[in-house]
Amino acid sequence: MLLSPGTRVARRGDTATVAYVGPLPPHEGTWYGVVWDRFERGQHDGVGPDGTRHFSCAPRQGSFLPASARLDTGVSFVDAMAQKYGTGPEVRALSVASLVGAPPPPALADASCVYVRCAYPDGATGPMPYTHLGTIDLSRSLLADWDEVARIAAPLPLHTLVLQQVRLRRAMQVPAAFAQLKCLHLNDTRTDWAQALVLGHAMPALTTLQLAHNGIEALGPSQDAGAAFPCLTSLHLGGNRLRSSEDLGAALQSIASLRQLLLSGNELTHITPMARPLAQLDEVHLADNPLEASSVPVLESWMAVPYALVLPPLRGDEEATRLWAIAQLPRLARLNHTPITPHERTDAERYFLTIASPDDPRYGALCEVHGAPVRAAPRTLRDNMVDLRWARAAHAPAVADVPALRAQAQQLSMLATTPVRSVLRHVARACAAPRTASLWAVLAAEPEPLVVAMDDGWQDLAWYGVQSGDLVVLVD
């Protein structure tokens, strides 16, 4: 029996949707045109060998398979449960079930992998014996639409449903079978925000929604988000292609119950102010976004309560970012999963005052808390000078020679960053010494001076530890 377009199939660990059934000139017989769930699994975009387009998909996502090819079309939920968990009385106490399809190559499937395609075998209906089944994982299944998912959910006390890497047809309306559902995982399902709103209206108790890795670029206007998600507390939008925080703010503004917003791995570059804060939002994840540091303080307008943040490095490294973020965000209570103690906040804010410009928006507020910082006098070039004495000797100096050398030494002032080769050239010119002369330093130390050969002309005086009052000896 031939499959019809829209049928979900699996082949060698990869899942696909049948998009075409028919001839494929110049080949003989009947062929299936399939669209693989995994990008670049196929060879073309739906065009046959003779140039005829039979269906459309992304480049290298389509394939043609002869109708005789071995394709797995899955089993019913009831049959899959019986195969994996049995049919004895103990199945009634089962609270969690995992009926996950085989992973795509190169991962290896195990004996527990099963493709679920429908609720009941042969279109039957009726009660299910799983009276305590509250969590089901149907990831990588062959379910094709929300009607079939509803047939599975309707007779169960379901509160958590995992449908990751499943391709369900777009629904304009979803059956009322999810009244108790609290957690819905739709990562890597290509579910967009508009479809999520449709689902939300059928799931009034939903508190957690995961929409990660769905290629979402924007949420778009959604004035009814609050009505769709009256109880939503956690929204996972990580790994998408979101670019506009203004779009995000407008879409989420009406979800009054939202507390956790996960946005890691998107393309956000800046944060725009929220017209009014989200009353309960207290955790935002922004790791792996190309954020401009200057816009992060605007996050204060998104939250009305103390909150937690996960940020990418914005100021060179994680430690510098932490100090800066704590000083800039007065209600930040936890950063990158680590609580901020009162002592740490005080240190960070006081340090920030020593480096911040008085024009910084936080400068005045922090001065009111900690007082204005005492500004050090501006450094001048003179502050970087070392005042030395130099003398000339016929041989490398020893500690016993130091008093006599100091007695005949002359004054010399140089920058601490002056290379030794420049000091040598200057001193040799002053006393007409040969170019083969070498330079030694006599450094103040206890219990006796330290004599050092300055034999690397590319290093500077500071590198050798030379300070004001030390003696430099030119040896012919």
Automatic annotation (TrEMBL):
<feature type="domain" description="CAP-Gly">
    <location>
        <begin position="22"/>
        <end position="66"/>
    </location>
</feature>
<dbReference type="GO" id="GO:0034220">
    <property type="term" value="P:monoatomic ion transmembrane transport"/>
</dbReference>
<keyword id="KW-0813">Transport</keyword>
<dbReference type="InterPro" id="IPR000938">
    <property type="entry name" value="CAP-Gly_domain"/>
</dbReference>
<dbReference type="Pfam" id="PF01302">
    <property type="entry name" value="CAP_GLY"/>
</dbReference>
<keyword id="KW-0732">Signal</keyword>
<keyword id="KW-1003">Cell membrane</keyword>
<keyword id="KW-0472">Membrane</keyword>
<keyword id="KW-1133">Transmembrane helix</keyword>
<keyword id="KW-0407">Ion channel</keyword>
<keyword id="KW-0406">Ion transport</keyword>
<protein>
    <submittedName>
        <fullName>Similar to S.cerevisiae protein PAC2 (Microtubule effector required for tubulin heterodimer formation)</fullName>
    </submittedName>
</protein>
<keyword id="KW-1015">Disulfide bond</keyword>
<keyword id="KW-0812">Transmembrane</keyword>
<dbReference type="InterPro" id="IPR051432">
    <property type="entry name" value="KCNMA1_auxiliary"/>
</dbReference>
<dbReference type="GO" id="GO:0005886">
    <property type="term" value="C:plasma membrane"/>
</dbReference>
<dbReference type="InterPro" id="IPR036859">
    <property type="entry name" value="CAP-Gly_dom_sf"/>
</dbReference>
<dbReference type="InterPro" id="IPR032675">
    <property type="entry name" value="LRR_dom_sf"/>
</dbReference>
